[in-house]
Amino acid sequence: MRERTPTGRPGPRRGWRVFRNLLVATLMFGALGGFLWVREGYPLPTAELGLRRLERQNLLAPSEIVWTAREGERLDLWEGTAVWMDQSVAVGVRDGLALVGRAQGGWTVWGAGLSVFPVGEGPSPVPLPRTTLSGIREEWDGETPYGVPFSAGPMLFLQMPEEAVRGTLEIWEEQPGEDGARTAPLECRLHPLEAGIWLAALEAEVTAVDAWQPYLGAPYTLRLYGEDGGLLLEQRGTIPEEL
Description:
Elements: H1 14-39, H2 47-57, E1 64-69, E2 74-76, E3 81-85, E4 88-94, E5 97-103, E6 112-118, E7 124-127, E8 133-141, E9 144-158, E10 166-177, E11 180-194, E12 197-204, E13 219-225, E14 231-238
Antiparallel strand pairs: 1-4, 2-3, 3-8, 4-5, 5-6, 7-9, 8-9, 9-12, 10-11, 10-13, 11-12, 13-14
């Protein structure tokens, strides 16, 4: 039997009241969630979505996303060495350009940024600006191992040949000498991350930020070797500057 209101009229059915209360509660929670989402800077859950938003904000067509890394993600590079990403990163490629999206503390409209670099034919260096790797390197004191903290600036090499198993990178920088400025090579370690993508880590001071900035536009020499130890490729170029 339907309940009656104080005026004697039939009240709403119980099922309708339950539905109405659920609808009101859902709208209230939705409004609260929307308010929190706006207050936190419209955070997005994945690097792919974060890069897509940065592309739209900069009026760029969608790129092919080739590599992503989460903030705090561990990368095991060389034996006895592990590094962690200090920022989330997403890298996309389109029309001879590399789009590098980065975010710290989540992919929000306030904590994310985009950099654009040119990409050529063959192996192409792509710096990851304002991004740092924090690492621990194992060293030995006699027979006792201990960890040494270090900081490094990451840079990707895209379009690397699959036949390569090892590589070296030399960066040529100007240094003062007795006869004025002279050029000295700076060696940087390389590590394959996945097919066609390698990581170059430039060690710097532990407190350094954007370690690659002084070397943008500097000449480099890349050498790649095959399984038999033979030289596969020697390439000379310059570290690209941000467009």
